[in-house]
Automatic annotation (TrEMBL):
Record key words, sorted: Signal
CDD domains documented for this protein: SGNH_hydrolase_like_4
Classification via SUPFAM superfamilies: SGNH hydrolase
One Pfam match: Lipase_GDSL_2
Signal peptide feature range: 1-26
Stated name of the protein: Lipolytic enzyme, G-D-S-L family
Gene3D superfamilies xref list: SGNH hydrolase
Entries under InterPro entries matching the protein: Ester_Hydrolysis_Enzymes (IPR051532), SGNH_hydro (IPR013830), SGNH_hydro_sf (IPR036514)
The keyword Signal appears for this protein: yes
GO molecular function, one term: phosphatidylcholine lysophospholipase activity
Residues in SGNH hydrolase-type esterase domain copies: 75-228
Length: 246
């Protein structure tokens, strides 16, 4: 009887191990499939034109006295309003952020997602992902091109700083070194001044030294709801300043 019990226990252990192995393999395959799907999407629509294409088609031109504002950027912009906090409730501002995009991809969709919607002001937030792939010269050219297009269409520009990072939860500073973020923000500030745009300094409000304040991020990379609560009045002030420019 004892031998039978041992055999049953051993069989159960083997079955459990096999089930765990199958589950792990299924998860690995699912992760690979998701990665492949994301890569296929990039190949088909590298610039992200499909994302807001249908929604844009349904938006009517602004009313005569309406000062439309578009927030245009990467994951920092895209995630704004996806948590418990609303995206500028009652303001009618439009969010045109796409996670993971570089300034090169943003430039591709600038006409569709900004110019065609006829805003009075565009808040451009980008550069975080360029730190992974782009040279400073290429990124500068992309910012300059977006600025030129906006000016040619009578759109006032607010240029936002890149937000800080920290290793509070996971390692973030390896891919996005804090020194490079500080240098990039210095360039954005100088470029804004030279081009008569408004500089929106998210970084100083969110950082403690070089680090993202731990209470304002849940992963060390992106703002949380509390951070967006800090950022909102700064954005409102910058928008008002841009609208006051002649």
């Amino acid at each position: 009887m004892r031998v039978l019990g041992i055999r049953l226990l051993a069989g159960s252990m083997v079955a459990a191990c096999c089930l765990m192995a199958q589950t792990a393999e299924a998860q690995r395959v699912e992760a690979l499939e998701q990665k492949l799907a994301a890569q296929r999407k990039l190949l088909v629509d590298w610039g992200g034109l499909i994302r807001y294409g249908s929604e844009n088609a349904e938006i009517r031109p602004p009313k005569p006295n309406e000062k439309r504002v578009i927030f245009f950027g990467d994951q920092v912009t895209e995630r704004w309003g996806q948590g418990s906090g609303k995206f500028f409730p009652g303001k009618g501002y439009l969010n045109r952020g796409i996670g993971g995009q570089t300034t090169a991809q943003m430039l591709v969709r600038f006409h569709q997602d900004v110019v065609a919607l006829k805003p009075a002001v565009v808040v451009i937030e980008g550069g975080m992902n360029d730190l992974l792939v782009a040279t400073e010269g290429v990124m500068a050219d992309n910012f300059l091109s977006m600025m030129d297009i906006a000016r040619a269409n009578g759109i006032r520009v607010v240029l936002a700083s890149v937000t800080p990072v920290c290793d509070c939860y996971t390692k973030q500073t390896g891919l996005r070194p804090q020194g490079k973020i500080i240098s990039l923000n210095g360039w954005i500030k100088d470029f804004a001044a030279a081009s008569s745009a408004v500089f929106l300094n998210y970084y100083s409000a969110l950082a403690d030294g070089r680090n993202f304040k731990k209470e304002l991020t849940d992963d060390g990379l992106l703002p949380n709801d509390a951070a967006y609560g800090v950022m909102a009045p700064l954005a409102e002030k910058a928008i008002a300043e841009a609208l006051s420019k002649k």
